[in-house]
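To the wet lab folks,

You asked to see what we're planning to order before we commit. Fair enough. Below is the target structure as tokens, and below that is the sequence we designed to fit it. If anything looks off to you, flag it before the synthesis order goes out.
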């Protein structure tokens, strides 16, 4: 391995095959002109940052590595596999997926589960996926993300029993499109329209329900709306999201 080589220009690469960056030691992998990935491309990487701005489809199990903090994939539309996408990503801090139609899933091998059990704190704070209608796989081991603050996915139609959400305080931004759900025993706040299935489910399960079209004046910093009518504003990890509930395709402010 070229341990002292921290980066390399990959401007001419347009496609990467299976294990193309397997066990890569570069701090950053930036592929500005890559449009296609095939196979498990970023397997066991030691990189902190991966940028694939033109890629729209993510194949099979694609990301694993203990140091990976961010994956920039703003144009990814589909995680097109019925298997886990992320494995042993102990350092991942957030997922910003403005175009994805599904939410990528997580898994941990025996080593990962052991060091988590020994007290490793996972830093993932948020998942932002405004167009996602489902998870890419029926199972996801997200219960270990004990620092997660919110999941924004108002187009989700279901959350199955095998989607293991964190068991701590967490805000879920949903809508009346969700018609089937199972949440872990967490201290959740769910934000959704009045009269929706989500409201009924929240009341039945003893969760905190916050109407998406109502400003709770009792809250010091309301998590559900700003003064633009039926809209939402929240800030996590230095990123501020503002978007209308009626038109979630348009982000009103991002700074």
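Sequence we intend to order:
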């Amino acid at each position: 391995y070229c341990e002292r080589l921290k980066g390399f220009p990959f401007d001419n690469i347009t496609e990467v095959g299976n294990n193309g960056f397997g066990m890569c030691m570069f701090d950053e992998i930036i592929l500005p002109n890559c449009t296609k990935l095939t196979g498990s491309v970023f397997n066991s990487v030691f990189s902190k940052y991966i940028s694939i701005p033109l890629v729209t489809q993510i194949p099979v199990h694609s990301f694993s590595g203990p140091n990976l903090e961010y994956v920039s994939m703003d144009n990814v539309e589909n995680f097109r596999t019925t298997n886990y996408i992320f494995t042993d990503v102990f350092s991942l801090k957030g997922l910003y997926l403005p175009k994805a139609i599904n939410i990528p899933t997580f898994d941990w091998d025996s080593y990962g589960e052991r060091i988590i059990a020994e007290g490793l704190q996972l830093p993932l704070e948020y998942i932002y996926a405004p167009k996602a209608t489902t998870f890419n796989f029926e199972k996801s081991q997200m219960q270990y993300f004990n620092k997660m603050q919110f999941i924004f996915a108002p187009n989700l139609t279901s959350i199955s029993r095998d989607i293991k959400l964190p068991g701590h305080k967490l805000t879920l931004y949903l809508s009346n499109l969700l018609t089937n759900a199972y949440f872990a025993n967490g201290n959740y706040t769910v934000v959704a329209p009045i009269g929706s299935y989500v409201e009924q489910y929240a009341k039945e399960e003893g969760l905190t329900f916050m109407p998406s079209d109502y400003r709770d004046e009792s809250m010091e910093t309301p998590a559900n709306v700003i003064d633009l009518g039926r809209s939402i504003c929240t800030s996590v990890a230095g990123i501020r999201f503002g978007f209308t509930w009626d038109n979630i395709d348009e982000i009103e402010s991002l700074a």
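Structural context that might help your review: Helices lie at 110-117, 197-205. Confidence is low (pLDDT under 50) at residues 219-255.

Thanks,
Computational group
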